[in-house]
Amino acid sequence: MDSKQKILIKFGERVREIRKEKGLSQEELAHIADLHRTYIGMIERAEKNITLINIEKIANALEVKINNLIN
Amino acid sequence: MDSKQKILIKFGERVREIRKEKGLSQEELAHIADLHRTYIGMIERAEKNITLINIEKIANALEVKINNLIN
DNA sequence: TGAATGCTAACTATAGTCTGTTGTTTAAGA
DNA sequence: TCTTAAACAACAGACTATAGTTAGCATTCA
């Protein structure tokens, strides 16, 4: 995942935005979503091309629709 | 990817539905989306956990919003 | 300082590619 | 009808690329 793709950047920004709105740390979000601390960081920095199942996990953890993270 | 996840099943069904509406074969869709023939089949059968970049490729190829494929 | 995040590197699990074969429609011709 | 062929999709297996895990240390910032 070099040369970061626009859609991953948008997604990461949105996750970070909502996470902060909720007053969660990356570690707390990771715990709720059952993912690893550093992985959340990588997603927010658009360093990984996230899969649909993990998109859903994060949306659930943030209590938003997937729509809200992508469009 | 055994024990297929609901969200992947929904996604696959939706891709197949729209693909057929457009009168495209899996091979034609694959070509437009720049993905492999058999991979489109696997996605429609919910056998693979698709990544965000490929979700976007398929949405573009089908000329729909990602929303349309997920929610 | 301490809590949160960034970053690296090494690892393992699996996404995604590719070739080939089998099975299933569908349509045309006798 | 009944075949036959051609187009399409399912499936298997072997492979390569990369998603996702984890630990440890560096950096940032309140």
UniProtKB/TrEMBL annotation, chains A, B:
One Pfam family cited in the UniProt record for this chain: HTH_3
InterPro entries reported for this sequence: Cro/C1-type_HTH (IPR001387), Lambda_DNA-bd_dom_sf (IPR010982), TransReg_Diox_bact_type (IPR050807)
GO-annotated molecular function: DNA binding; DNA-binding transcription factor activity
Highest taxon in the source lineage: Bacteria
Keyword rRNA-binding set for record: no
Segments forming domain HTH cro/C1-type: 15-69
The entry's keywords: DNA-binding, Transcription, Transcription regulation
GO cellular component: cytosol
Keyword DNA-binding on entry: yes
Protein name per the record: Transcriptional regulator
Organism of this sequence: Aurantibacter aestuarii
